């Protein structure tokens, strides 16, 4: 019975003790379960763990430390971790012989991987300018959004209402959709250019128009998000046949109209 109960995970609290913590956020990863979190500015944290799980603490300014959850720690649901400051001694930097050609010299420079620093980093892309404008138009002071229950509590941000009535919100939503479509179009042209030219028998002049043609097809968005990209390529081959026939038909109609 004790073995069965300890195999279950529960939330364990902890406290990081270190010199000059100064509100630093420490990466905390349960290596056994693959789950992670970060400490708060005071060094406190909570993480789900089981007995014998290995928990890794890492940060730029402190040495990495692994702690194994014991049965005692599991029962108390609390433990303290002491971290030691890391002394990062920089290697001697030797610059290569510079030629004076900036493009060539940059290629010869060594590049460090930022993910090797173990620093907390956001993987979320920053907002585009159009997204920032839409966010500002649909929120009140402090990022307050208009909710159906706002009136019940007497908290009604005016900016979203004014922008909605004036049509500004609708205009910004339409602008974001057009920018997103443009980004999709450019991405697809970069990724599929050789396929569209070789397998779909399109010309360079027809590529931009063809992707625009595909964007309005109902199944295009679903196929773009499908991990099986072969389905998307088959879609391009099918639609390119229709697209080329449509272009031929339009040219014929234009020639007939010009004769008359």
Tell me about this structure.
The structure is a single chain. The protein is of the alpha+beta class. Helix content is 45%, strand content 14%. The strands form two sheets. It has a four-stranded antiparallel sheet, with no helix packed on it. A three-stranded mixed sheet has the order 4-1-7. Strand 5 and strand 6 (65-68) form a beta hairpin. Helix 4 packs antiparallel against helix 6 and helix 6 packs across helix 7 (204-215). The protein is elongated and about 90 Å long.
Going across the biggest sheet, name each strand in turn. 3-2-5-6
**Mean pLDDT across residues:** 76
Radius of gyration: 29 Å
Distance between the termini: 93 Å
* Helix percent band: 40-55%
Query: In this structure, how is the largest beta sheet organized?
Result: 4 strands, antiparallel
> What does the overall shape look like?
elongated
Uncertain runs are 1-6
Helix count, DSSP H or I runs of 4 or more residues: 9
